[in-house]
Design brief:
Layout: E1 11-15, H1 19-30, E2 34-38, H2 42-50, E3 68-71, H3 84-91, E4 96-97, H4 99-110, E5 116-120, H5 125-138, E6 143-147, E7 164-168, H6 171-175, E8 184-187, H7 195-198, H8 201-213, E9 217-221, H9 225-236, E10 240-245, E11 253-257, E12 260-265, E13 268-274, H10 284-299, H11 304-313, E14 322-327, E15 330-334, H12 341-350, E16 354-359, E17 377-383, H13 387-394, E18 400-404, H14 406-418, E19 424-428, H15 441-453, E20 459-460
Helix pairs in contact: 5-10, 5-11, 8-9, 14-15
Length: 466
């Protein structure tokens, strides 16, 4: 745990008692703060009481006595309208912050030299965070990873100048972190997302920009217009900027040339790494993730040999293009995290011949946005509520069957792929939510793993998933 010592002896109000909220309350108490916490869910309040956290309805609190109000990131700050607790804090002139802000203040006060890499973006945050932490740890650095992935940030090991912190940040967390100041800040990309909570794309982009604006070096993907403009704006303001691109040869920055990772500087080009043969980093989207991780690791002192070794040993993230088994020429890939068409596109773009398992609880727009990938699909196996609508979209463009269940889809896809005679992949990338048949995408992905493991002659892929 990182005790929040900057609030020692002060009174702090806190709203939101989920996992990160509980951890934040405990960090504040460990640092000497007097905390009053609340939640709209009575069960969460009872759980906090059982953990020794003082609770009370903040509607009746003496707001003038509080030094800060700590808000959980899942609670609306601005849109569609501020939560009632936000209105009360603002009326009393109490600053509103989140757990990432507590971390930033503790680091500034007690371990300002601790390398801090913060990652945000609409897509790829979790893979880039996990990859960066893996490279650092595999190079022997004392590495802590958390934030919007894995552990809540205040549950990480105590701050030390020789300890490396890799933190994934959502837009909600950044919005509550006015003094965030990473050693290396990464902004991967921006596409419309969470606009119900941010109102407009411009506001969403402005929040994301804060992370790199406060960093020592801003690492910015420039393959979309929003991020390209942010990179230009930061550079004009005197910020050190490293541009990255998964597809554009840059004149200055890092870019991907096929599976080669290239650096352009002063009109000269140098290969600084490669992704050839690294199955866990297949696809253009992962080239962008790798480039960002490379740039950040260079900033905090790693050499190219250490970085390449980390790239090659990266196992990938569970349920995100996770290679789970191989039988002869057939690779089995779990991409259960792909809960809409946009999320399924990277996997479909990464393999030339696919036996595609898709379906579940449908999202708006269906799979029509994936039509450009239909020529790659040897056959589709449709499951769940979306099956009839997906069948109508596929029409005569792609052979398909309505398998109904995931277990049947895996069995039939494996049989058909084995008769193909070519290198192929059996891919679960549902382009749907899981809730019609599974509790969440993790349970769905685990069911796929188990179905694959039950196939006779299957060779499981563990650890280094190349």
């Amino acid at each position: 745990m990182i005790p929040a010592r900057e609030f020692d002896g002060k009174r702090v109000a806190l709203f939101g008692l989920g996992g990160s909220g509980m951890a934040t309350a405990q960090a504040l108490i460990a640092g000497g703060a007097s905390v009053l916490a609340w939640d709209d869910n009575p069960e969460s309040v009872a759980k906090a009481n059982a953990a020794g956290i003082a609770t009370g309805d903040l509607r009746a609190a003496d707001w003038a006595s509080y030094s800060a109000f700590v808000l959980s990131p899942g609670v609306p700050l601005t849109h569609p309208k501020p939560h009632w607790s936000v209105d009360l804090a603002r009326a009393a002139g109490v600053e509103i912050i989140g757990d990432i802000e507590l971390f930033a203040r503790e680091r500034a006060a007690h371990a300002p030299k601790a390398p801090f890499i913060a990652i945000t973006g609409t897509n790829g945050k979790s893979t880039t965070t996990a990859l960066t932490a893996h490279i650092l740890a595999s190079a022997g650095r004392d590495t802590q990873m958390g934030g919007n992935i894995g552990r809540a940030v205040m549950t990480l090991d105590p701050l030390r100048d020789d300890r490396f912190y890799v933190v994934e940040c959502s837009s909600y967390q950044i919005d509550l972190s006015p003094s965030i100041n990473p050693t290396a800040g990464i902004l991967l990309n921006l596409t419309p997302d969470h606009l119900d909570r941010h109102g407009t794309m411009q506001h969403y982009a402005a929040i994301k920009e804060r992370l790199v604006a406060g960093s020592d070096v801003a690492i910015v993907g420039v393959d979309d217009s929003y991020c390209a403009q942010i990179a230009d704006r930061l550079e004009r303001a005197g910020k050190e900027v490293v541009r990255i691109s998964k597809r554009l040869p840059l004149t200055d920055g890092l870019f991907a040339d096929g599976t080669d990772l290239m650096e352009a500087r002063d009109g000269r080009y140098e290969r600084i790494g490669f992704l050839e043969g690294i199955g866990s980093l297949r696809g253009q989207h992962n080239a962008q993730n790798a480039l960002a991780a490379v740039a950040a690791c260079l900033k905090v002192g790693l050499d190219l040999g250490e970085i390449q070794a980390g790239l090659e040993s990266f196992p990938g993230l569970a349920h995100r293009m996770e290679q789970v088994g191989r039988k002869g020429r057939i690779l089995f890939v779990n991409d259960s995290k792909a809960t809409n068409a946009d999320a399924a596109a990277p996997a479909l773009s990464s393999f030339p011949r696919i036996y595609w398992i898709a379906g579940g609880l449908p999202k708006e727009g269906g799979i029509e946005p994936l039509r450009s990938f239909f020529p790659r699909i040897a056959k589709a196996y449709l499951i769940g509520e979306a099956a009839p609508a997906f069948a109508a979209t596929l029409g005569e463009a792609v052979p398909f069957e309505i398998s109904g269940t995931l277990a049947a889809a895996v069995e039939h896809a494996a049989q058909d792929a084995s008769e193909d005679g070519a290198e192929a992949v059996v891919l679960l990338s549902p382009a749907c939510a899981s809730f019609d048949q599974f509790r969440n995408f993790e349970v769905r992905g685990e069911a796929f793993r188990q179905a694959v493991a039950a196939i006779p002659g299957m060779e499981p892929i563990r650890g280094d998933r190349r």
